[in-house]
Amino acid sequence: MDTRTATAELGWISFPANGWEEVSGYDENLNTIRTYQVCNVFEPSQNNWLLTTYVDRRAAQRIYVEIRFTVRDCASIPSVLGSCKETFNLYYLETERTLSQGNRGVEYWANAPFLKQCPLNSRSTVEAATLCGCRAGFYRGDMDKAGDVCTSVPSAPRNVVSVVNQTSVRLEWNPPRDIGHRGDLSYNVVCRRCHSGERRACQPCDDGVAFVSGRRKLTETRVEISKLRAHTPYTFEIQDRPGVEMLLSAKAESPPMESKV
């Protein structure tokens, strides 16, 4: 907010309502500026306040405030020595609320008293509810806020591709078509060594098999696996894992995307 460039009324809230006057004046360069001045300087027991409009800090981490003002010498107003002031206080309030003038000081309301729609995949059972519950099949995690969207179980990974090189293999895949509106998806890789072409004849791989970037909670859509046995069939299963335990417990075993080597 820069009032030096304002050409219309600033619209600040004043207290008392008739205690201030907004006028146009000139700065030292004869540029027109908007200013506020106290009107009733000769009245006793004065208590004059100004409240600016809301200032959106956006992404700023630090706020600098520069105020230009002039103060009249109290000695020139001898009849109000008990309340004349040559200093003032500056207060600020960090808030996401709109402020309005109350009977004394200010009162608050959150983004004005209007109703909002429920977040995505949620609903309310009563009018003007303070919390929207998730629809069937959708969930919020423990770290999600009450105003966050409700998320669902993601679909299976797609288009698994394997590149075999003697006793190692590189697996790559595409993310699920539907990630359930979450950004914390990870993947597990299940390795099985098979004795025949049938899947039921496969056993979990032993600890000698090496996963270059690990086999659990992978954030990338690729993995390299080495120290495999030559001339041995393997089955690799890519599983997507949502980052919320509630979704994990609700997730039925999705059809695995496999690459057999």
Automatic annotation (TrEMBL):
InterPro entries xrefs: Ephrin_rcpt_lig-bd_dom, Ephrin_rcpt_TKs, FN3_dom, FN3_sf, Galactose-bd-like_sf, Ig-like_fold
Domain Fibronectin type-III: 153-261
One GO cellular component term: plasma membrane
Domain named Eph LBD: residues: 1-166
One GO MF term attached to the UniProt entry: transmembrane-ephrin receptor activity
PROSITE patterns: EPH_LBD, FN3
Subcellular localization: Membrane
Topological type in the membrane: Single-pass membrane protein
GO BP terms in the entry: axon guidance
Annotated keywords: ATP-binding, Membrane, Nucleotide-binding, Receptor, Signal, Transmembrane, Transmembrane helix
Primary location group: membrane
PANTHER family: EPH RECEPTOR A5 (PTHR46877), EPHRIN TYPE-B RECEPTOR 1 (PTHR46877:SF17)
Name by which UniProt lists this protein: Ephrin type-B receptor 1
Organism: Liparis tanakae
Gene name tied to this protein: Ephb1_1
